[in-house]
DUF2461 family protein (Chitinophaga oryzae), 55 residues
Amino acid sequence: MNISVLNFLTALAANNNREWFTAHKHLYNSAREEMPTKSCWQKTLRNNLLLFTKR
Protein backbone atom coordinates (compact mmCIF):
# COMPACT_ATOMS: atom_id res chain seq x y z
CA MET A 1 0.00 0.00 0.00
CA ASN A 2 1.29 3.46 -0.90
CA ILE A 3 2.19 5.96 1.81
CA SER A 4 -0.33 8.47 0.44
CA VAL A 5 -3.11 5.96 1.08
CA LEU A 6 -1.98 5.54 4.67
CA ASN A 7 -1.68 9.30 5.09
CA PHE A 8 -5.22 9.77 3.82
CA LEU A 9 -6.59 7.09 6.14
CA THR A 10 -4.76 8.60 9.10
CA ALA A 11 -6.10 12.07 8.32
CA LEU A 12 -9.59 10.66 7.81
CA ALA A 13 -9.49 8.95 11.19
CA ALA A 14 -8.52 12.24 12.85
CA ASN A 15 -11.14 14.26 10.92
CA ASN A 16 -14.01 11.86 10.47
CA ASN A 17 -16.68 14.32 9.39
CA ARG A 18 -18.41 15.26 6.16
CA GLU A 19 -16.99 18.80 6.00
CA TRP A 20 -13.40 17.59 6.17
CA PHE A 21 -14.02 14.80 3.68
CA THR A 22 -15.69 17.15 1.21
CA ALA A 23 -12.79 19.60 1.43
CA HIS A 24 -10.26 16.78 0.98
CA LYS A 25 -12.08 14.56 -1.49
CA HIS A 26 -9.24 15.03 -3.97
CA LEU A 27 -6.99 13.14 -1.51
CA TYR A 28 -9.53 10.33 -1.36
CA ASN A 29 -9.66 10.15 -5.16
CA SER A 30 -5.86 10.12 -5.44
CA ALA A 31 -5.53 7.41 -2.82
CA ARG A 32 -8.28 5.37 -4.44
CA GLU A 33 -6.51 5.51 -7.81
CA GLU A 34 -3.38 4.04 -6.24
CA MET A 35 -5.16 0.92 -5.02
CA PRO A 36 -5.05 -2.04 -7.44
CA THR A 37 -8.78 -2.80 -7.42
CA LYS A 38 -11.97 -1.37 -6.02
CA SER A 39 -12.52 -4.35 -3.75
CA CYS A 40 -8.98 -4.04 -2.42
CA TRP A 41 -9.59 -0.34 -1.69
CA GLN A 42 -12.84 -1.08 0.10
CA LYS A 43 -11.29 -3.88 2.15
CA THR A 44 -8.28 -1.75 3.12
CA LEU A 45 -10.43 1.23 4.03
CA ARG A 46 -12.79 -0.90 6.11
CA ASN A 47 -9.96 -2.66 7.94
CA ASN A 48 -8.13 0.57 8.72
CA LEU A 49 -11.26 2.32 9.89
CA LEU A 50 -12.01 -0.62 12.16
CA LEU A 51 -8.53 -0.30 13.66
CA PHE A 52 -8.97 3.43 14.26
CA THR A 53 -12.44 3.09 15.78
CA LYS A 54 -11.18 0.55 18.32
CA ARG A 55 -8.81 3.12 19.84
Remarks:
- Residues 38-53 form the longest helix (16 residues).
- The CA atoms of residues 20 and 33 lie 20 Å apart.
